[in-house]
């Protein structure tokens, strides 16, 4: 409807909306004031008329709120109140949100939206007292939209009980919010204990930030009991690594995605997390040092040593305009389809329950089988440093030898069916000789 100045005569003349055809749901209609932008009247199908204001919050979200019912409030009274609230909006305030805070009427969805807006602006600090990373926010937003809002979004935070939160956890674990993958891209929404527990952790963290910054009085999730997820201890045995190697060779000859195959090998040879490997940029590789200089990881900026065979694998990736070693098939991002490629390879190899994390665990297990210490394995995997010694372990020559030894051992197993290439044999001999000399030197120093 075209805006016009709202008066008693104009509001009285407004008719309730009627359906344009049978079976169509009737929605309310609005008439906006010509003189005071954002002030209007809403007419429901029942004929009920209410004054409303509509505006954009400082975070850029549209908000519409009823300020009074016509009949209990005159047009001029509503205009004065609307003007006061819209003046606050012009000064960067969200009057509806402020009133909700004062009255303790904020919903879970509103607090979640506040958290995302504040975190995206860098005003909420996460671990290590630094702004929350974009990748973490993306995961938080996914859990909010997929699980938290559908189950608890409309509930008032002030009335929320631990039982409500733990009931949400049970519903997520049971698959109440699960959805299948739609189309050729994007993932399925799953349930399970792990997904449920991580969602509860996200909600607890959001409430903790909100309570600390005065958005809510207390954290209603404090004391919630999270489900214990099953430990992810799946690793590939030596024979399974051999089967994987054979399947990789067959898949390469059969036209499987070359970047997917290379990414699988790289993850297995380095123990990198899935997104660390796929998002690896060429500028981060120091070939002479045999290391990756990550500007940011789950544990902060890191230097991660990798084996010579892993460096060679990266060097052999086709050069493109992309900054990534494993670029996407289209667009400017990196390759993301490694899970589906791995599923197809494992199906050919007759391997079950194998994920990119399984490759990481297998790398660590091979390192353990070779006798390396927990400290060395933790450094190879990029676990967060727990002391001064571990923060400096990446510069130790012994760690470079360990990375070479573990990656070389895995390549030996992968290629055992076809025998090692002459170059691989020479490389293995060099590593073994270097290890022998290191052992002799250590023995001499001890003597």
Automatic annotation (TrEMBL):
UniProt key word Cell membrane:
no
UniProtKB keywords: DNA integration, DNA recombination, DNA-binding
Q: Where exactly are the transmembrane stretches of this chain? A: none
- What CDD domains would the database entry show? INT_Rci_Hp1_C (cd00796)
Under Gene Ontology molecular function, one entry of this record is: DNA binding
Q: What's a single GO BP term from this record?
A: DNA recombination
Q: Which residues form the Tyr recombinase domain?
A: 231-405
Which InterPro entries does its entry note? Answer: DNA_brk_join_enz, Integrase-like_cat_sf, Integrase_catalytic, Integrase_DNA-bd_sf, Integrase_DNA_bind_dom, Integrase_recombinase_N, Phage_Integrase
What protein family does this chain belong to?
Answer: Belongs to the 'phage' integrase family.
Q: What is this protein called?
A: Integrase arm-type DNA-binding domain-containing protein
């Amino acid at each position: 409807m075209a805006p016009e100045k709202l008066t008693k005569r104009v509001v009285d003349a407004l008719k309730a909306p009627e359906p344009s055809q049978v079976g169509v749901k009737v929605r309310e209609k609005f008439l906006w004031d010509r003189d005071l932008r954002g002030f209007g009247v809403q007419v429901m199908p029942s004929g009920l008329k209410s004054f409303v204001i509509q505006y954009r919050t400082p975070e850029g979200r549209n908000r519409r709120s009823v300020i009074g019912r016509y009949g209990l409030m005159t047009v001029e009274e509503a205009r004065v109140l609307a003007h006061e609230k819209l003046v606050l909006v012009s000064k960067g305030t969200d009057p509806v949100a402020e009133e909700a805070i004062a009255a303790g009427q904020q919903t879970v969805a509103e607090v979640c939206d506040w958290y995302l807006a504040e975190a995206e602006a860098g005003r909420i600090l996460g671990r290590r007292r630094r702004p929350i990373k974009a990748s973490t926010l993306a995961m938080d937003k996914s859990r909010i939209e997929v699980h938290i809002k559908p189950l608890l979004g409309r509930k008032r935070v002030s009335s929320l009980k631990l039982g409500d939160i733990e009931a949400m956890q049970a519903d997520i674990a049971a698959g109440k919010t699960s959805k299948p993958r739609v189309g050729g891209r994007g993932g399925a929404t799953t349930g399970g204990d792990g997904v449920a527990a991580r969602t509860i952790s996200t909600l607890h963290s959001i409430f903790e930030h909100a309570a600390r910054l005065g958005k809510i009085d207390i954290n209603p999730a404090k004391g919630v009991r999270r489900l214990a997820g099953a430990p992810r201890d799946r690793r590939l045995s030596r024979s399974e690594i051999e089967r994987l190697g054979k399947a990789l060779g067959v898949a390469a000859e059969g036209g499987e995605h070359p970047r997917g195959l290379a990414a699988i090998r790289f993850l297995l040879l380095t123990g990198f997390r899935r997104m660390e490997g796929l998002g690896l940029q060429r500028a981060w590789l120091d070939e002479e040092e045999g290391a990756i200089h990550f500007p940011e990881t789950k544990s902060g900026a890191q230097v991660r040593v990798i084996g010579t065979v892993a460096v060679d694998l990266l060097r052999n990736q086709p050069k493109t305009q992309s900054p990534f070693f494993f670029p996407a098939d289209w667009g400017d991002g990196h390759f993301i389809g490694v899970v589906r490629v791995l599923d197809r390879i494992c199906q050919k190899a007759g391997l079950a329950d194998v994920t990119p994390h399984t490759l990481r665990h297998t790398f660590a297990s091979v390192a353990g089988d070779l006798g390396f210490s927990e400290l060395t394995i933790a450094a190879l995997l990029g676990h967060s440093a727990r002391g001064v010694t571990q923060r400096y372990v990446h510069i130790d020559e012994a760690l470079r030898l360990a990375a070479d030894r573990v990656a070389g051992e895995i390549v030996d197993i992968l290629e055992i069916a076809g025998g090692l290439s002459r170059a691989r044999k020479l490389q293995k001999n060099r590593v073994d000789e270097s290890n022998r000399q290191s052992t002799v030197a250590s023995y001499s120093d001890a003597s």
